[in-house]
Amino acid sequence: MRFDSVIIQSVVAKLLQGDDYREEVINAINLEFLDFALDFFKAILEAKMQDCALNLEWYKTHFINNANIKPDEAAIYAGMNKKTISNIYGSATKEVVLNVANANIDYLESLLTSLGDSSDNIGITLKITYKNIAIELNLSESLLVINALATKKIALRGGAWSSIGKRVEKPLMLTLCEKCGVKQEFINAEVFSKNKELDFDREVDFKLYNVDKSKEYRVEVKLMGKGNPESADAVIARDSHIFIADTLSEQNKRQLKALGVEFLELKNNERILLDFVDILERLQIPYEKP
Question: Taking the model in full, what pTM does it have?
């Protein structure tokens, strides 16, 4: 899931105010999901108007084996997502995704057929209308659509929480440095590029330098919840010197202190800028007092 610049700016603003940023992410997930749902219903309406097949062949034709449908979209319509397919089969090529999508649809169809035989007292009918046009989906069709919607929501949610931290890291640090008066010459915000001369190069996208640039400080940002044990692991893995986090537990703080890592907790912190300035002073990173 992608976040536009407005959402990123809003998340950064909330973080630097010590507020919880999660509402912004949830709102973005819901908005994208509702857009998907409405487009999906419209596409179903159009497909059913064109194809009156009494079984689920119309669904396969229009939503799985349609040349105009992207493979990752076909996977969602089949009740799977591309990442899961890649994890299971070790590949997510177009051929693999479409083969898995078709196999999953066939499997779901057999399940729905069995369900229909044993659920005479259960009735679900989705009615989709647009202006003066209306179509109704039977139990099997309705459940297939509901399953696709559920799969899309899960995929959006997983993608959002896994990507928001990475998308926010650089804007957050640039804004924090700007507010604290750190000059551009002591900042390196270039995208990580592996040094091929090294046997192993740790990924980090933000660095700060001391007054004579004799020392480079690697900065790690994580929007993690309290009690998350990842903090020390992330710092060790990337050899970080400064750790910025949304929330830190007391155990997290003890771990970071033991490692000699400077850290800044954002949530419910009324002195974020002052605490960051303290870090700058301890590491002799030049800044102009705000």
Answer: 0.79
